[in-house]
Amino acid sequence: MSQALGKWLKQTPVILPMFTPSPSGKSLVVSSKLKKLVWFTKLFYLALLVMAITFIVSTIVVNEQSFKKAIVDRLSGTLQVSGSDECYLTKAHCSRGGGEALPKGIIVETTDLRLRSLVMEKDSKFQPKEAVAKNLLAMAVGIKQKKVVNDIVQKFPLSNFTIMLFHYDGVVDQWHDLAWSNQSIHIVGLHQTKWWFAKRFMHPDIVAEYNYVFLWDEDLGVEHFHADKYLEIMEAEGFEISQPALDPASSDIHHMLTRRQASGRAHTMVMANHGTTLCNKDSNGPPCTGYVEVMAPVFSKAAWRCIWHMVQNDLVHGWGIDFKIGYCAQGVRSEKVGVIDAEYILHKGIPSLGGPRQKNVTTAEQKKQYNNSLRSKVRKRSGAELTTFLQRWKKAAEEDASWMDPFPPRNDSSANYHKV
Q1: Between the CA of residue 301 and those of 255, 267, 354, 410, what are the distances in Å?
Q2: Which CATH architecture has domain 134-415?
Q3: Which intervals carry biased composition (Polar residues) (predicted)?
Q4: CA distances from 269 to 10, 46, 63, 93, 371 (A)
Q5: N or C: lower Cβ tally within 10 Å for the chain?
């Protein structure tokens, strides 16, 4: 580079003004000085040119790195904002505002569900402590299922789990005779579903200290289930989303993937035809793989942060979420979403909201009564919500030019399942 610059400086012609002898006969000797002046001028402009090129290149590199980081942040779902003098909270908090006026050290962005004493405890100095590694069990419950719920909670050691009950019937006091009740969180919302409660009381920043979130129905038999062992298997398998396998004796098994396979510890796919579901080795989506039902899902902390954003405010039954749940699996859904066979449950199929299920509806009068019943109306709304959710997903996917489907269907049963 230096040799090329030197050669250029030597070869470039130097234009000098013409001088004639003065009347006194003395010539003005300026040639050598002008040569030096022109040489330094060229050198100066060359330096400016090099500086300008350096600035432009560095700007391009920095912008490219920022662009790449923005893309990575978008794909990975990271929430941390760095290098910003205007806002040092998470992206969501920055967009909402509220913390900019506070000194950074006083800001607490998340909370927890731990109950606190009203009086001074021994050795308490109000010092922040490391969050205890715990997990959360949340259920929508009614007093009629008190015994079943108690059986479920007994399988979740209080030393490692926080219990949160959503009371859809408004009855709370009748639970207090259970030993674990006073250490649990009780929330009341008449005639609401677990997804309604979860959207409003399980924001990711509220349950941020929990490693895993169990969001279960109340009509589950847990004779062959142990929560601690279940989580050991879930972590060993690398699952971000899972459910216990369903005992073949369960009253309702909607998809063969969730049926227990007695020969293994866990499974992630099924190759069996069941009704309209056609599953084979080429199937890459639900309900053949990457699928769990909404009755007893278990989410990692990262997966729940994603799922919470998927839950719609006005769609309370959660139908349709199970077919899109794999998008929150933090990786390939056929690997990160699984059914655990070694710890399994029995689905008792006890309808709660909407009243009991009516069997043997055969006569015209019975059908008329059923169609006018609250149970029938609940079922109709559930089906309508399923269609609405899938329509919203389809519309959002089409309108978001920056989003690319990471799981395009190949021979995927869900491509024609609940088609909208």
Answers
A1: 26, 21, 32, 30
A2: Alpha-Beta Complex (3.90)
A3: 411-420
A4: 75, 66, 43, 39, 37
A5: N
